[in-house]
Write a structure and sequence with these properties.
Strand content: under 5%
Shape: globular
Number of strands: 5
Number of domains: 2
Helix content: 55-70%
Oligomer: single chain
Structural class: mainly alpha
Order of helices and strands: HHHHHHHHHHHHHHEEHHEEE
């Protein structure tokens, strides 16, 4: 709402934008989850807000706030690189057109670098920068794609068809009116860069772009119809289908019995192990507080982080040898094809509570 009002200077457009954003299926699904994408998107949107505040009043405080918040967004998740490139391109174009001063660009870049510098200094001093670069950048680059670009965009368009149509209408309206061009360009750049830069377009990757799309769609609804009644009807139509979709897929009343069962399994493993005990999970099911026998206790199936890592560095993964060498107290049967293997036989017995868990015989 605040970003929409900042850009379009109209409270009604702000309300339309807020309603449309809250019913974008992708945005709703991921914003209610506990994941770093949520604060990353929040910081990114606040950065955009203060950037356009700077464009309005040329306040250095707003410029600095935008840069700091962009850095915060990046530190939460490095996929904010798409927003960084988009904002950077926007500022450089304005510099070329002499709409932004050279020193303001320097200040923006310097504040951003100073904001992220402590983290990277910490990595360098701790000797973990190389590992950070491998697992945060190279691993994602080499990871095989299972969530295709076209599939993600088609799914989003189907879930929010009317919002997408009005987003396109809004872009055309902005182009013809020669007003609010910066915001339109930023929304297009952010969407395109997200699609181009990442192999797997999970829903959460669009969290920062979706509000911008909804804001322009809200502007299009407002500018296309002079009658408040027609605007209301169009808005109801725009939110009806995504709300129906979310209702049909129980997103308003999620069945959490699976999560409760998983929490019970986690509690069970914690109750029969001590701090310092090793376990083997392999599928991110029960291992939360215990050391696993292998770094890759997750993401072994497609898209496989393990296979991506092997493209960067030699890595031998043999779960039988890892179990034999580290003697974990609890193991799962995930990707263990035979318990008759000499390294497992007679050393583990099936749990009396969970048939997929095996306990070490002491």
């Amino acid at each position: 709402y605040l970003l929409s009002v900042r850009v379009f200077k109209n409270a009604e457009i702000g309300v339309f934008s807020m309603i449309l954003t809250s019913t974008v299926v992708t945005f709703y699904m991921k914003s209610v989850e506990i994941r770093p994408d949520v604060p990353q998107a929040l910081a990114g949107l606040l950065s955009i807000y203060f950037l356009f505040s700077y464009y309005d009043n040329r306040s250095l405080k707003s410029l600095v706030a935008s840069s700091v918040l962009l850095a915060v967004s990046f530190l939460f998740l490095q996929k904010s690189i798409a927003l960084i490139i988009a904002i950077g391109a926007l500022l450089l174009f304005d510099l070329y057109k002499k709409r932004v001063g050279y020193w303001h660009i320097v200040i923006y870049a310097a504040v951003f670098l100073l904001s992220v510098a402590p983290y990277y200094i910490y990595l360098l001093l701790g000797g973990t920068f190389e590992q950070y670069f491998v697992v945060n950048w190279l691993l994602n680059y080499y990871m095989e794609g299972v969530v295709g670009r076209s599939n993600s965009l088609i799914k989003f368009s189907r879930e929010n068809t009317i919002t997408c149509v009005f987003y396109l209408i809004g872009l055309i309206t902005i182009y013809r009116s020669c007003k609010h061009g910066r915001f339109a360009v930023l929304s297009v750049l952010l969407l395109l860069l997200t699609v181009i830069l990442f192999n797997n377009l999970w829903r959460q990757y669009f969290m920062t772009a979706m509000p911008l799309i909804a804001i322009i769609a809200g502007y299009a609804v407002y500018s296309s119809f002079s009658s408040k009644v027609i605007r209301f009807v169009v808005l109801i139509g725009a939110i009806y289908f995504p709300i129906t979709y979310m209702h049909d897929y129980a997103l308003f009343n999620m069945d959490n019995r699976g999560q409760l069962g998983q929490l019970a399994k986690i509690e069970y493993v914690l109750s029969i192990t001590d701090e310092g005990d090793k376990v083997y999970d392999g599928d991110v099911v029960f291992n939360v507080f215990r050391d696993d026998v292998d770094y890759f206790w997750f993401c072994l199936e497609k898209p496989s982080c393990l296979n991506a890592y092997k493209k960067v560095r030699p890595y031998r993964y043999n779960i039988y040898q890892s179990i034999a060498a580290q003697n974990p107290k609890v193991i799962s049967n995930f990707r263990i094809h035979s318990f008759n293997d000499i390294r497992l036989r007679s050393r583990y017995k099936v749990s009396d509570r969970y048939p997929d868990l095996y306990l070490r015989v002491d």
